[in-house]
Specification:
With about 290 residues, the protein is mainly alpha-helical. Helix content is about 70%, strand content about 0%.
Length: about 290
């Protein structure tokens, strides 16, 4: 009935990350004072992928908060007195019993969210380079997001253990990530089939082709080779490096899709300004500092 040290940092990091991402939207939407609009029923738009993303992000924040409350109530029982201890004795057993409901809700909401991020780019057929635009974008975004799940747990758990001087849970992590090569393999087959089915071979002979091949190698090919080997999976260093490669590969895929290979209009290119980059770096820095403080 208690969260293990492996689960705690995962929930806390997800909660911090999503809360900061939500706060970061204030800098992006322009009319920040209207950020509540998607929650109003008169503004609901069932044909909008971004509307679905906004609802999923709001819902997932609530689910993460509910998932994190048992951690607080457990601590209140140990260290608090009076009202907090009394209320925690009532709430904690109930939350532990229904925790599986929150987990399932989190999985479903994340599934909708990640696939919709790919659906958004279906609208950009003539703005996105053909190597990245495909009618299978929603599925590719979903599979790649699932594939990076366990590597992210390895990444944050390893750094958390190092920061707080705990012994890494390598045996658990190694067993957990066994399925990742299969998911990455499915994504790799899907990506290669897209090139074959739509006859994109000629496009591979350009700078964009090199960028795509780099993305595929970092995200899928090399991690599959490493993580398919039980001996390398049992090595904490190899496990961490392979997981980091998957995360970097996913970031490269998203940057390629939304930034590098995207053109607002023919002949135009876009790259974030120094101010925009500093805002993003600041958000990540706040995440690390806040996590360390808590």
């Amino acid at each position: 009935g208690q969260y293990s040290p492996l689960v705690r940092p995962a929930i806390l990091t997800a909660l911090f990350g999503y809360a900061l991402a939500g706060f970061g939207v204030f800098f992006d939407i322009g009319r920040w004072w209207q950020i509540y609009n998607p929650a109003l029923p008169q503004n609901w738009q069932g044909n909008s992928a971004l509307f679905e993303v906004s609802l999923c992000v709001m819902s997932y924040l609530v689910v993460l908060l509910l998932e994190f409350i048992p951690t607080l109530t457990e601590q209140w029982q140990k260290h608090e007195k009076g009202f907090l201890k009394a209320i925690s004795k009532i709430i904690h057993p109930i939350l532990n019993k229904v925790a599986i409901v929150f987990v399932l809700l989190g999985v479903v909401i994340s599934t909708l969210h990640q696939s919709s991020l790919g659906s958004v780019m279906l609208l950009a057929k003539y703005n996105l380079h053909a190597l990245w635009w495909t009618p299978w974008l929603p599925l590719m975004f979903l599979i790649s997001a699932i594939a990076v799940g366990f590597p992210m747990v390895v990444f944050e758990s390893t750094l958390s253990a190092k920061a707080f001087k705990r012994k890494p849970e390598t045996p658990i992590l190694s067993n957990l990530i066994k399925v990742t090569p299969w998911i990455l393999g499915f994504y790799l087959i899907l990506r290669l089939w897209d090139i074959v089915y739509f006859n994109k071979f000629a496009l591979l002979a350009s700078k964009w082709g090199i960028l795509l091949l780099l993305e595929i190698m970092v995200f899928a090919v090399i991690p599959i080779i490493i993580l398919s080997n039980p001996k390398k999976r049992a090595d904490a260093g190899c496990l961490f490096r392979a997981s980091t490669m998957v995360i970097v590969g996913l970031l490269l895929n998203r940057f390629n899709t939304y930034l590098f290979a995207y053109s607002p209009r023919p002949g135009w290119t876009y790259f974030p300004s120094a101010g925009e980059i500093l805002v993003s770096v600041g958000m990540v820095s706040i995440l690390f500092v806040g996590y360390k403080v808590v």
